[in-house]
Design goal:
Beta-Lactamase; 55% helix; 4 helices; 3 domains; five-stranded antiparallel sheet
Length: 198
C-alpha cells in the first residue's frame, strides 16, 4: 500500500472546499434570487389573472349586484338630487322675486348679485344702478361709511347684519341680513331685506 502524502490530501481537501464555496457563492448570489424571482413572477401573474377575471365578472350587468350597476344607480340618484335642487332654487327665487319685501343678495365679498322686483321699484328713484358694490350708494352720504364698516364686519365674522340707517331720499330703513353658512367659519354671501321704519 502506498502512502499518500499529507500535503496532497490537504490540497485536495482545500480544492474541494474551494469548489464547494464557489458553488455556494454562485447559488446564493445568482441562482437563489433567480429562483425566487421566477416563483414571485408566477405568483404575480396568477394574481393579475385572478384580478382580471374578477373585474370582468363585476363589470358585466348581473341584476344590480355589480360595481357597474352601483355606479349607474349612484349617477342616476345624483342627477335626480341636482334636478330637485334646481327646482327648489327656482321656486325660492320666484317666491322672493315677487315678495312684497325689498330683498337683495350679495356674494361672499359683499357685491350685490341679485335683487327682487320690490327692491328694483324701491330704488329706481334713488340711484341709477345698485349692481356690485354700488348698493352702498343707496344710503345718505354721511351714513355710507358706517353702513359699509358694519356690513364688512358682519361679512368677516359670518354673523347677522342688522342696521338702521337713512337712504339718500332721507327715508329711514332697517337692513337685516343673514349669511348663507357654508361652515362655521365661512359663508357664501348674504340675503338682505330692506324695510321702511315707521
Amino acid at each position: 500500500m502506498t502512502e499518500i502524502n499529507p500535503e496532497i490530501i490537504a490540497i485536495i481537501v482545500g480544492s474541494i472546499g474551494s469548489v464547494i464555496g464557489f458553488f455556494t457563492f454562485l447559488w446564493k448570489r445568482f441562482v437563489k434570487p433567480l429562483v425566487k424571482l421566477v416563483k414571485n413572477h408566477d405568483v404575480f401573474i396568477k394574481s393579475v389573472d385572478d384580478l382580471r377575471l374578477l373585474i370582468e365578472k363585476e363589470l358585466q350587468t348581473n341584476g344590480g349586484n355589480s360595481i357597474k350597476d352601483a355606479i349607474i344607480d349612484m349617477r342616476a340618484t345624483c342627477s335626480r338630487i341636482e334636478g330637485r335642487q334646481k327646482v327648489i332654487i327656482q321656486r325660492t327665487k320666484a317666491a322672493l322675486h315677487y315678495s312684497n319685501v325689498a330683498l337683495f343678495e350679495t356674494d361672499a365679498e359683499g357685491r350685490l348679485v341679485w335683487c327682487n322686483a320690490m327692491m328694483q321699484d324701491y330704488t329706481k328713484d334713488i340711484v341709477s344702478s345698485i349692481e356690485g358694490f354700488d348698493w352702498i350708494n343707496l344710503f345718505a352720504e354721511e351714513e355710507r361709511e358706517e353702513v359699509q364698516a358694519e356690513f364688512f364686519s358682519c361679512l368677516k365674522m359670518n354673523r347677522r347684519f342688522n342696521k338702521t340707517t337713512r337712504l339718500q331720499n332721507n327715508t329711514t330703513v332697517r337692513l337685516i341680513g343673514y349669511p348663507y353658512r357654508i361652515s362655521d367659519s365661512e359663508h357664501g354671501g348674504f340675503l338682505i331685506s330692506l324695510q321702511e321704519e315707521v
